[in-house]
Structures
1.
Amino acid sequence: MQEHAATQASEAAHKGFNAGEVIIGHVSNGTEHPLIHLPPVFGIDMSVTKHVFMVWLVSITICVVITAIVSRYVASKRLLPVGAENGLEIIVEFIRDGIARPNVGGKWLMTWTPLLLTFFFFILGANAVGLLPIFDVLGLIDHYFIRAPEHSFLKNLIHGSSTATGNYNVTAGLAVISFFAIAIAGMKAHGFVKHWGNLKPGDHWAHWALVPLEITSMLVRPFALTMRLAANMTGGHIAILAILSFVFIFAEAHSPMLGIGIGIPSTILSAAISGLEIIVVMVQAYVFTLLTAVFIGMAIHAHH
Amino acid sequence: MQEALNMSWAYAGAGIGLGLVVVGAGLGIGKLAAGVAEGVARQPSAAGQISGATNLPLFLLEGVAILAEVFCLLIVLLK
C-alpha cells in the first residue's frame, strides 16, 4: 500500500504539470467516462455524461422551484405577491416588458413570453451552476474522506466541467428550438406559405437576389446563438483555470516557494475574473433571450 | 521538418488573427460606447432608450468576436 503510493507519487512528479491537459480536462464533458453507460441507439451513444446530468439537474430544479412559487401565489388568492413571488415578478416583468413587448408586439405577447422566460431561466441557471464550486467541494470530500475508486460514479461526476451551456451541443439544442420558434412565429402571423414568401422582401424583380441572403441569415442566426453562448461560457472558465495554473507552472519550473508567491496575485486575479464571469453569465442569458425575441419579432413584423 | 514549419505558420496565423479580432471588436464596441455617452450627454432623459437601442448591436458585435475566437481556436486544435 505504501509502495503503491510511493510509485504513484514519483510517477506524478516525473510527469510534470501539463497545463493544457488540465485546463481542457476541466472544461470538457468527459465523454470517455460517462456517468451511466447506455447502449447506442442507431449508432448514437446515449450514455449519460456530466453535461446531460447537469441539464437534467438544472431543468428539474428550476421547474420545481418556479412551479412551487407560482402555484403558491395562485392558490393563495391574494393580489399582492409575498416573498419569493416578488423576486419572480421582477424577472418576469423585466422580460415581458423589456424584451418581449418591444420586439414581439402586443398581439403575440402572451404566445411567446413563456418561451422567452423558459430560455432565460434555463440559461441563467445552467450558466450559474458552473460558477458554484459544488463539484470542487465534492472532490475535496472525496479526496480526503470517501476515496472513491478510479472509474466510479462519484469520480466521473467530479471530473469535467459542470457548465452544461459551455457545451456547444447543449446550446445547439437551444438554438434549434429558437429556429423552430422563429419559423412557427412567422407561420402563425402570416399563414403557412406566406411566411416563406416573406423571404423575398419586396415586389421588385431585383428582390429575388436577396432570397439567398435571407435564407443564409435564417441558418446563420441559430449557429451564432449556439457559438456565442458556448464560447462565452467556456472562455471564462478557461481564463480562470489558466490564471490558476500559473501557480503550478511556476512551481514546476523553479521552486514551490515561487509557486506560493505567484499564488497571491493569481488567486486575487482569478477571483476578479470570477466576478466578471458573474456579469457574463447574466448578460449571456439576457442576450440569448433578447436575440430570440428580436428574430421572432422580425418574422412577425416582416413588412418592409 | 516541413510539417513542423507548416504547423508553425498555422499557429502564427491563428495568433495574428486573434489579435486582429480583438482590435476590431475593441474599435467597434468603443465607437458604440462613445455614441451612447454622447447621446446620453446631449439628452439625459433618453438614457434608457439609448442604452436599450445599443444593447442589440453591442451583443451582435461581441458574438462576431467570439465566433472568430472559436474559429482561431479550431485552427490550432484541428491541425
2.
Amino acid sequence: MQFVKPILFQEAIDKLGSKSVIGSQLNSEQWAQIPTALRERAFFSSTIENVRFLQRAQDSIGDFLSGARHKVMGPDGIEREALKMGSRADFVKQMSAFAIAEGMGPLDSKDKGGLKDITSQKRLNLIFDVQTQSSTSFGNWKQGMDPSVLDEFPAQRFIREVDVKQPRPVHQQNEGVVRLKTDLEFWTAMNSPAIGGFGVPWGPWGFGSGMTTEDVDRTEAEALGLLSPSDTPQPVDKDFNEGLEASLKGLDPEMVTKLQQSFGSQVEIDSATQTARWSAGVRPSAPVQPPSPAPAAPVQPATPRPASPGARGEATIESVLKDLGLEAKPVVTAADMANLREELKEAAPAQASTVLGRVKATASGALTQEAIAEHVQEFLNFLPASLVEKLPKLDIRAASMSGRGSYSMGGNLKIDRDLRTDPDQARRTMFHELMHWVHREGSPAYQKLIKDHFDARTAGEPVVHLGNYRRDVRGKRDKWYEVYAGRIYRGEYPPMGLEVPTRYIEWLTMKPNEMARWWNDPDFRETMKIVLKGLF
Amino acid sequence: MVTLTCKLLFPDGKVVTGKMTAESPEGRNPVQYDGPVERLSETFDDTTVASLIFLFRDLARETGAAFSSDMEGEFDQWAE
C-alpha cells in the first residue's frame, strides 16, 4: 500500500484538547524553565493569568482544527451552518474583543500593539500560530509513528520553510539532513530548550525558527544507509511520552502546587525524588486531600424529607447538605454518607406497584419479579412522588443481551438476565437504567442542567475513544470519575451528557466508606451535587 | 475482560499492589493485595475498577508513595 499523506487529523485535535489551561504571571523565559514534561501539556501564554481568556483561546483553536460548525441566522432570516472559527483572522478578531472586554490591555501604553499586548494582532497571531503548529506537528509526528506509515516513510528531512532574520546556527548546520523519525536524540536536539526550542521531537522548532520537516520514503532512507531492507522500524512515540519525567528541583513551590492543581491526576508527583511523571490516567483529577477520614461514627437517625410532595417546600440538595452540616465539611465520613443517603429518601415515595407495567423476570436469583420490584422501590425511595407521576410506566425485561442493561424511550428497560447471580451488580445496573428513565423522560430543566454541566466540563475537549471500552464507544474523557460518563452516542447532537446522571447515581449503591472517599474529591462532588438535583 | 494493577511505590522501596479483573465497570470484584498492606489506612476487599484506582491514588496522597496503574483489555459488558 502506498501512503501519500495522512488524512485524518484527530491526533492534532486530541493534542490541543489534552492540554490543561494554566493561567500564570510567568513570562516566556520563566516558562522555558518549566520542565518539558509539564510545559508541553499546558495551554498557557506568557504573563496571562486570565483562565477564561486561555480557555476561550483553546476552545477557539480547537474549533478551528476540528472544523466545528454551528447554526447562524443569515440576513435573509434563513438558518445556515457555518464554521465556528474559520481562520486566524477570525481568531484574532474574536480574541482581541474578548481580551478588551476582560480589561486585559497592556499596563504600559508603549507596549500597545506589540507582543506584550494581548489584544494586539501580533500577539494573537503568535498564539494562534504556535498552538496550531504545535498541534498539527504533533499530529503529523504521531501519525508518522503508525507502524505502516513508519515502514513506508521511516525518515524525515529537516528543511527550511520560511527565511528568518536570525536562523539558529544548529538549524543552519542541519538544513537538509535526513534522519530516522525514531532518532529521538537528533530531533529533540533540533528543538532543544537550550536554543529556544520546546524540548519535543516535533515542531514548531522554537519561536520563529522557520524550520519544518518532510517525509522521506524507505527507498531513499535505505540508499542513505539509515536502515536495511530487512529492518522494521518500531514506533517510539510511547517511549518518548513515557520517558517524560520532570525534575521539580529548583522550581518555585507555589508553581509546583499550581501545576499540580492544574494537571490534577494527569501528573504523579513523587515527593521523595522531586519528580513528576505522566500517569496512565483513567481517574479524574483531585487536589491533594487531607488525611483519611476519622473512623466512622454511629449513624445518626436522619429527619425524613416531608411526606407530602406538596409540602416539600424549599428543600434542595444544598439545603439538605447544609442541614446535615456537610456543605462546609472538608472531609466527610462513612457515617456522614449513610446519613445523607437516608436524608435523601422520601417519606412517602411512589410505590413500585404503581409504576411497573409488564415485567419479564427470571425464576430465581436477583432478577425475580419480587427482586426487580425491590430494586425499583429502592430507587423510587429517592424520588418525589410528584416527579414519578409524570414518567411513563416501566416495562422491564430480564433477557439475554450483549450489554448489562439498556434503556429506550417510553419506559423500556432491559437488564442482562445473567445478573441474576450478581445481586450487587443487578442493583447497580437497575439504578443506572432507572436514572435514564428519570433524566430522559423527566424535566427539560434537569436535562438542560446536565447538558450545561457536560458542556462546561468538556469545553474544548475532543471526542475520543473511551479507553477499555469497545472501539465505537466515544466521548469526552474530562475528569469524570469513570470515563463512560463522558460517552457521546452516534447521532447524539448536541451532546446531552446522557451517561453523566446514570454513572454518577450509581454512587448511591456504593458502601458508605466508598461513598465518602468519592465525595471528598472536589471534581466528583461538583458533578454529584448537580446529578442529585434530579432527585428533588 | 480488564486486568487492573495498581501500585504504590514507597520512598523506602517497598511496593504495595492491588490487582483485580473485571468483565464490566459496574461489577464489584475481589482485590488481591500484595506487599506491606498494613501501611494503608483503608483497603476495599472488593470494589469496582474505578474505585480501586481512586483508592490507590488517594492512598498515594496520604502516604507520600508514588502511584502507578496498568489496565489492560476491554470490558466485555456494561450498562448502556
